[in-house]
Amino acid sequence: MTGENFATTGQLLGTVLAVQANFYRVQLDEKDEEMREIREMREQDPPHLPHPPHPLLLLCTRRTRLKKIGQQVMVGDRVVVEEPDWAGGRGAIADVLPRHSELDRPAIANVNQILLVFAVADPPLEPYQLSRFLIKAESTGLDVLLCLNKSDLISPQEQQQVSDRLLGWGYKPIFISVKDGINTDQAARYLSNKVTVIAGPSGVGKSSLINTLIDSLQLRVGEVSGKLARGRHTTRHIELFELPNGGLLADTPGFNQPDMDCNPEELIHYFPEARKRLAVASCRFSDCLHRDEPECVVRGDWERYEHYLEFLSDAIARQTQLHQQADPESTMKLKSKSKGKGQSQYEPKLESKKYRRISRKTQLQDLQELYRDEE
Ligand SMILES: Nc1nc2c(ncn2[C@@H]2O[C@H](COP(=O)(O)OP(=O)(O)OP(=O)(O)O)[C@@H](O)[C@H]2O)c(=O)[nH]1
Ligand SMILES: [Zn+2]
Questions:
Q1: Annotated binding site for Zn(2+), which residues?
Q2: Is the pTM of the predicted complex or chain greater than 0.80?
Q3: Are 123 and 203 in contact (CB under 8 A)?
């Protein structure tokens, strides 16, 4: 089915906020008069459940037809809901709309942006760690928003220095202080009407920020309390939370040190400052890894070039490992070949194809694992 088919009236559309056992918590769009009426009706006559749910939330099953065709339903999916039982708060997912993006960890569909939160102090801002998180975030292909919290702990001069430095990396961070309520409104504006995943190391104030951002939701829904979803659930639990000004927010529990699981040839594109160089010039070799190749336009005196080289060797090491697992013979072939040339350790085209195949498989396994966990 194509996207247009869903534009027809009479269909209930919604977003999957969470997966619980074999049920999907779906928040219906409040797009027209009819839905407003339904909401009002449910508000007046709440279902006889211990905790009356959000009026537009339905606990849904997945239609057998979807199971048969192997159509998974992810958090963040836009779905068509049939047979709503308003009194019981139930429904059935009949279709999944095409996804415009699909994150792997956490497994969430249709995310628009990653909000990376770091602290300027306590814990100290670690450039290498920040770089690592940025690369990981960039590798999703989504927009990356950088918030630096605890700005109350540094002087305006120090803040300017950090700001200048990160501008050199190609980022314009928002300095916030959740404690003093500085710029949190500005951060909230960036999130409105978007699906955002929040990430960052431990102790930087992610929970504090989330609680500030969705304070009114906690009051309204009354089912989210205290430290939102953090610590309350296993690290596998994924949930989208509604923001008061529209938009959804998900947390990434247990995401402290991201793996560098990207492809060596793609790595350079996750550095905005290098992207700028590549936009105006080209390296002599199309498969240049920007190390010691002649006529490379990327190699140079930019601050994070050292980070690039380190991440590159990580990425190559990881790829070699993947090769050995997937196909020991081909690795041996590659090895003997590289000995002959005494240089380059792999053939980009071959590797990239293989890499993608493996990566899709692991993605699927991750998902299956997730659903098993939830059952
Ligand atoms: N000085 C200062 N402290 C803050 C600020 N925001 C949060 N904190 C403190 O930083 C500590 C960590 O905050 P959390 O919100 O738990 O951090 P987190 O990123 O969620 O940490 P994890 O749950 O470990 O991932 C707490 O003691 C907060 O009170 C801020 O703007 N300024
Ligand atoms: Zn190059």
A1: 283, 288, 290, 296
A2: no
A3: yes
Place of tokens 């960890």: 105
Residues having C-beta closer than 5 Å to ion ligand 2: 283, 288, 290, 296, 298
Task: Extract the runs of DSSP E, i.e. beta strands, from the chain.
Answer: 12-20, 23-28, 57-62, 78-85, 90-96, 113-119, 143-149, 174-175, 195-199, 240-242, 248-251
Q: What percent of the chain has a predicted confidence (pLDDT) above 90?
A: 57
3-state secondary structure of 108: strand
Residue 57 phi/psi, 5-degree rounding, is: -95, 135
- Look at residue 23 and give its three-state secondary structure: strand
Ligand nearest to the CA of 297: 2
Tell me how far the alpha carbon of residue 178 lies from the centroid of ligand 1, in angstroms.
8
The four Cα atoms 316, 318, 321, 322 give a dihedral, to 10 degrees, of -100
> What is the gyration radius of the CA atoms in the chain, in angstroms?
23
List, chain by chain if needed, residues with CB within 6 Å of any ligand 1 atom: 149-150, 152-153, 177-179, 202-208, 230
How confident is the model over 269-286, as pLDDT tens digits? 999 999 999 999 999 999
User: Which protein residue has the closest C-alpha to ligand 1 atom 13?
Assistant: 205
Q: Per-residue DSSP letters for 294-363? A: TT-SS-SS-TTHHHHHHHHHHHHHHHHHHHHHH-HHHHHHHHHHHHHHTS----HHHHHHHHHHHHHHHH
pLDDT number for residue 369: 41
Q: What is the distance between the alpha carbons of residues 181 and 372, in angstroms, rounded to a whole number? A: 41
Atom of ligand 1 nearest to the CA of 204: 19
Answer for the pair 152, 159: CB distance below 8 angstroms, yes or no. Answer: no
**Looking up tokens 């009819």, which residue turns up?**
34
